[in-house]
Specification:
Number of domains: 2
CATH architecture of the largest domain: 4-Layer Sandwich
Number of helices: 18
Structural class: alpha/beta
CATH topology of the largest domain: Nitrilase/N-carbamoyl-D-aminoacid amidohydrolase
Oligomer: single chain
Largest sheet: 7 strands, mixed
Strand order of the largest sheet: 13-12-9-8-7-6-15
CATH class of the largest domain: Alpha Beta
Radius of gyration: 27 Å
Distance between the termini: 66 Å
């Protein structure tokens, strides 16, 4: 039986830390060598991290990237490797249907995979399909590839492609299978959003069945600004069955023995003609880099049999990883959070404590004249259960001094949201002062529902460095809180925080529903309008009142200027604010 042993390295690189990334890659290479693998696969752009964005415009960065690849090549002994890096080439590599024009004096750049065998670079694959939607801007930097190498290693024919390439049915996988590839090594930096891992698995199973190949899907893991990469690497056999899964939201080395003879038998059973139908004329190159198959003496590989997570658990794990990596990769040690006694700040504090450890989290309670006794008690109890430090800084006197300073200017006017926002801005100033004095990162606590409709204060509760639940709708905030409470014998979030009606407590007896529709109505409308781009009439047809739909859409449209000034937050939905949804601030188009 012809067995091919592969290792998938589910690593967490840091964008721009080329030296650190290579140091970690060398460690993974040593582990793969001990496992006696035929080939080890690293993620897309593993050397530079993903996405490198405008670092790609720096010539020195590109040179460092190539020096790093040379170092990886020197350490790849006794096995083969597939390594994601930035490739460079001349105009002869430009595919004629690509509209990008190369500036004078600049080489073309490619999102590339180096195929290395025993300290030699034997082939390079350049990504054919460059995503340029949502959070992706690859056509800004890269050119598409035009060649498709087929590598024969230890008697196994394999094709290498990158991320987006495998999502298209007519993509390189089809050409590689038609040219005889039995194994597809696909390397990725595929960002997380809720439900994506299941859709991804279905797509890979379809691609493997349709082309009669084993597909290995090596995905990056870790947080990078607003993106989180979930890992969940996969190997799917030629029938579409999952052979092994990598861990979710953790680094992992996934080692598996692949029965390549089973692919050949399957193809014989289905007829050779089917596998020649997708050949791309002139694109495929065959590279033989080893002798015909000779079995190695080695222990049987044990794959990492990770179990798929519940979708809500995936979101929670993604938020924890996003906070841990944003804080750590940017050189912070501690975070500070304004605790109000509400569900949003409670969930933010729990996520931060899980990500960093309770000792690294400072909670600050800033009561105003309108803060209830229940809020004071709930904040204290939350901090006790979480074992985080709590500091209380009353703002009543500061608020009074602001009103006194503005008294003559505001003479003859009635109190309104101006006075409410003053309290939020005082709190923002206090949190930022603590940040400046002690170097703590301020984590803001606003959710997606509030950010959508502008129910937030510029330079107040929006002031901070990282918005943990910015992409989490209010109804999901409660779901995450319940999920986290089920983990421990004693619920970490006090029950009363769930039971009390949401309130900013910026005026007497204030409730969120004084200003907003109930969140059970608001969130579905926001999902339809913000994430799905549905027209007002379509949303009304979903069963919502026309007046409510019109009011919500108007609030969303006029709040773009606020969102543009808010801190970045972790993407967990299909369409998040920021890179995913880029609306002009000055905008005369109205849907209502």
């Amino acid at each position: 039986m012809r067995i091919f042993r592969i290792a998938m390295v589910q690593m967490n690189p840091t964008v721009g830390d080329v030296t650190g990334n290579v140091r970690r890659m060398k460690g993974w290479l040593r582990e793969a060598r001990r496992a006696k693998v035929d080939l080890v696969a690293f993620p897309e752009l593993a050397i530079t991290g993903y996405p490198p964005e405008d670092l790609l415009l720096k010539p020195r960065f590109l040179k460092d990237n190539h020096r790093a690849l040379d170092e990886v090549i020197r350490h790849c002994q006794g096995m083969a490797a597939v390594v994601g890096y930035v490739g460079e080439g001349g105009v002869s590599q430009l595919r004629p249907d690509h509209p990008m024009v190369v500036p004078a004096g600049r080489h073309e750049l490619y999102n590339a995979a180096a195929i290395i065998a025993d300290r030699r670079l034997v082939a390079t694959y350049c990504k054919w399909y460059l995503p340029n939607y949502g959070v992706f801007d690859e056509s800004r930097y890269f050119h598409p590839g035009r060649r498709i190498p087929i590598v024969v290693l230890n008697g196994t024919a394999l094709g290498v492609n990158i991320c987006e390439d495998i999502w298209l049915p007519e993509g390189p996988t089809r050409a590689q299978a038609a040219a005889g590839a039995e194994l597809i090594v696909n390397i990725n930096a595929s960002p997380f959003h809720m439900g994506k891992s299941r859709f991804r698995e279905q797509m890979l199973a379809t691609r493997a069945r349709d082309h009669g190949v084993i597909v290995t899907y090596t995905n990056m893991v870790g947080g990078q600004d607003e993106l989180v990469f979930d890992g969940n690497s996969l190997i799917v056999d030629q029938t579409g069955e999952v052979i092994v899964r990598g861990k979710a939201f953790e680094e992992d080395l996934v080692v598996a023995d692949l029965n390549v003879d089973a692919v050949a038998r399957s193809r014989m059973a289905h007829g050779r003609k089917k596998w020649l139908a997708g050949r791309v004329a002139g694109a495929v190159e065959r590279v033989v880099i080893s002798e015909p198959y000779a079995p190695k003496k080695r222990a049987r590989a044990v794959g990492a049999g990770a179990v798929p997570l519940d979708p809500l658990e995936e979101v929670y794990r993604g938020l924890v990883l996003g906070v841990r990596d944003y804080v750590g990769k940017n050189g912070f040690r501690r975070v500070v959070i304004g605790l109000s006694g509400g569900i949003d700040s409670a969930v933010t504090a729990v996520i931060a404590a899980d990500a960093l450890g309770p000792a690294q989290v400072l909670g600050v309670f800033m009561p105003s004249p309108y803060t209830s006794r229940e809020s004071r008690e709930d904040v204290a109890e939350l901090a006790r259960r979480l074992r985080i430090q709590l500091r209380t800084i009353p703002i009543t006197n500061t608020f009074a001094s602001f009103r006194h300073a503005l008294a003559s200017s505001f003479e003859g006017t009635a109190p309104d949201t101006t006075e409410e926002n003053l309290q939020a801005r005082i709190r923002g100033n206090l949190l930022m002062a603590i940040s400046n004095k002690f170097g703590h990162l301020v984590l803001t606590t606003g959710n997606k529902s509030e950010m959508s409709v502008g129910y937030a204060t510029l330079y107040g509760d929006m002031a901070g460095g990282f918005a943990v639940i910015k992409d989490v709708p209010k109804t999901m905030v409660y779901d995450l809180a319940r999920l986290r409470n089920r983990r421990d014998n004693t619920a970490v979030i006090p029950k009363r925080i769930f039971d009390r009606p949401p309130s900013a407590e910026l005026r007497p007896d204030q409730k969120d529903e004084d200003t907003l529709p109930p969140y059970s109505i608001l969130d579905p409308i926001l999902k339809a309008y913000v994430e799905e781009d549905r027209a007002p009439e379509e949303i009304v047809d979903m069963g919502f009142e026309r007046e409510t739909v019109a009011r919500v859409i108007a609030m969303v449209d006029r709040s773009e200027y606020k969102r543009r000034q808010s801190p970045i937050g972790i993407k967990i939905t299909h369409r998040a604010f920021g890179k995913d949804r880029r609306m002009p601030i000055t905008n005369g188009y109205r849907t209502i």
